[in-house]
């Protein structure tokens, strides 16, 4: 028998696992065998730049290393020099020391972790995003995590440097918002060059609201998020340009605050537009927040039926996005949790079959950062 002639037929495999077809020519007979290439995502990953190396920028890099589905090739921050980046990434008061190795080489940041791809990252220190040469390092996708450039016009400055797509790590007044597990299928690569990953709270609320609305219908609802402190708050009392009480000491107070997270759900789930609103209480904990959704339902539902619906979604099509627990948990139990929303079955209550209070936890830093990476991965799969 003559040796087989092998012909590799590589298809476009940008983050989609497709077979390599080996054509075996033996005795004038053609046999086609599909061999699935393992770890194909490691061959072709979207190249990512990060603008702003603050809380979300640094945790987005950690998420990128951990998930191993994107390649971070550049970071820009005008206020943080390379050596300081090493220190800030390596040591984190909330999430602990980075479980890997970080170093510098020829002016680059080098991030390594056993079993994961190495990220060799070009560092820029530019204030104007239009001047960042993303194309030089091949960065197609930019995570805009400064909190400053949150509109299409401002974030589009990254496109001038060669980026193809920009993902804003905050709500946006005009950029389309996508929440993984809820409406990412609406992403249009032909026109969506600047998009928003919405807020961490919207990422927690929207998957839960989707399940409840799909199964039972939501007539109206009020959301409260009990939210951990963020960098925008004051360590001690100081002036505030908006609400005066926003300037009160974060470590000393529970501070009522506004949030557009509930209204934003109406943008990602159009059927709920105008049906939800909410507020926040900022509390003196460093991380992990919790959403309380109080809703009036169209269809009568027992609490057990609601729990069953959420559990089914958490174990099915929303696995990895929505979680479910019946344990007697507290906030620190979710530190480092990569899911967007973890439903607390034991904390939920019902007044009657049409009026319920539902509770869901979220790591407002790391969980959200994981969704940034997932959204880019999704966008790349549509390129």
From TrEMBL:
It comes from Globodera rostochiensis (Golden nematode worm). D-glyceraldehyde 3-phosphate binds at residues 199-201, 230, 259-260, 282. SUPFAM superfamilies: Glyceraldehyde-3-phosphate dehydrogenase-like, C-terminal domain (SSF55347), NAD(P)-binding Rossmann-fold domains (SSF51735). This is Glyceraldehyde-3-phosphate dehydrogenase. It is an enzyme of class 1 (oxidoreductase). NAD(+) binds at residues 55-56, 77, 169, 364. GO terms for biological process: glucose metabolic process; glyceraldehyde-3-phosphate metabolic process; glycolytic process. Residues 46-200 form the Glyceraldehyde 3-phosphate dehydrogenase NAD(P) binding domain. The active site is at 200 (nucleophile). Signal peptide: none annotated. The lineage of its organism: Eukaryota, Metazoa, Ecdysozoa, Nematoda, Chromadorea. GO terms for cellular component: cytosol. Pathway: Carbohydrate degradation; glycolysis; pyruvate from D-glyceraldehyde 3-phosphate: step 1/5. The record marks 227 as: Activates thiol group during catalysis. Keywords: Glycolysis, NAD, Nucleotide-binding, Oxidoreductase.
């Amino acid at each position: 028998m003559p040796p087989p002639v092998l012909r590799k037929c590589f298809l476009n495999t940008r983050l989609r696992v497709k077979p390599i077809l080996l054509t075996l020519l033996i005795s004038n007979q053609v046999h086609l065998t599909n061999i699935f290439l393992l770890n194909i995502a490691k061959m072709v990953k979207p190249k990512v730049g990060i603008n702003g190396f603050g809380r979300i920028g640094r945790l987005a890099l950690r998420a990128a290393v951990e998930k191993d589905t994107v390649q971070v090739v550049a970071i820009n921050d005008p206020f943080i020099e390379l050596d300081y980046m090493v220190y800030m990434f390596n040591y984190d008061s909330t999430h602990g020391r980075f479980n890997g190795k970080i170093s510098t080489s020829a002016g680059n940041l080098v991030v390594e972790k056993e079993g994961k791809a190495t990220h060799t990252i070009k560092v820029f220190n530019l204030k104007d995003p239009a001047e960042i040469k993303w194309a030089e390092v091949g960065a197609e996708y930019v995570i805009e995590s400064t909190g400053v450039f949150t509109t299409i016009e401002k974030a589009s400055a990254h496109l001038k440097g060669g980026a193809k797509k920009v993902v804003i790590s905050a709500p946006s007044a005009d950029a389309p918002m996508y929440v993984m597990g809820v409406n990412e299928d609406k992403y249009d690569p032909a026109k969506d060059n600047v998009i928003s990953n919405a807020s961490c709270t919207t990422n927690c609320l929207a998957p839960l609201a989707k399940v409840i609305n799909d199964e039972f219908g939501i007539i109206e609802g009020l959301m409260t998020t009990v939210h951990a402190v963020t960098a925008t708050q004051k360590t001690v009392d100081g002036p505030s340009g908006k609400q005066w009480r926003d300037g009160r000491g974060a470590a000393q107070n529970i501070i009522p605050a506004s949030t557009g997270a509930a209204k934003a759900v109406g943008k990602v789930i159009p059927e709920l537009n105008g049906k939800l609103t909410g507020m926040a209480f900022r509390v003196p904990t460093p991380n992990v927040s919790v959403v309380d959704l109080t809703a009036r339902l169209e269809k009568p539902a027992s609490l057990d039926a609601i729990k069953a619906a959420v559990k089914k979604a958490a174990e099915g099509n929303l696995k990895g996005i929505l979680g479910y627990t019946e344990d007697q948990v507290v906030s620190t139990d979710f530190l480092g949790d990569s899911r967007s929303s973890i439903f607390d079955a034991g904390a939920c209550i019902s007044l009657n079959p049409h009026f319920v209070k539902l509770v869901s936890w979220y790591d407002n830093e790391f969980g959200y950062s994981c969704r940034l990476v997932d959204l880019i991965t999704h966008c790349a799969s549509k390129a």
